[in-house]
Amino acid sequence: MARLENAILTLVEVFNEYADKGNITMDDFKTMLEEEIACKEVKEQISDEALEEALGELDRNQDGMINIREFTLGVGFLIKCIYHVQKKLDM
Ligand SMILES: [Ca+2]
């Protein structure tokens, strides 16, 4: 399978694993980040305070949960974060 397709399918799989009826609770979203992000340099970038703020911003419809649309915003943020951490580590 093509790499991009594979990566997207993995993201959908992760979403479905943590979601219940199309939404991930904030607690489950935090658990997901704990379990699915292994890189300590990336984790170090995300303080508890920054995470709370980011989650508040991600929750666009203010229902206290993360739907697929909001999840894609979060993934976009993580892609940028990991891109910059890798760039730093390569230097
Ligand atoms: Ca929401």
Task: Give a quick rundown of the structure.
The chain is mainly α and 91 residues long. It has five helices and two strands. The protein has a single domain, classed as Recoverin, domain 1.
Any overview of this molecule?
This protein is mainly α and 91 residues long. The chain is globular and about 40 Å long. The longest helix has 23 residues, at 68-90. The protein has five helices and two strands. Strands 1-2 form a two-stranded antiparallel ribbon. The protein binds calcium ion. The site of calcium ion has 7 residues, from strand 2. Calcium ion is lined by residues 59, 61, 63, 65-67, 70.
Notable characteristics:
91 residues, mainly alpha, Recoverin, domain 1, two-stranded antiparallel sheet, binds calcium ion
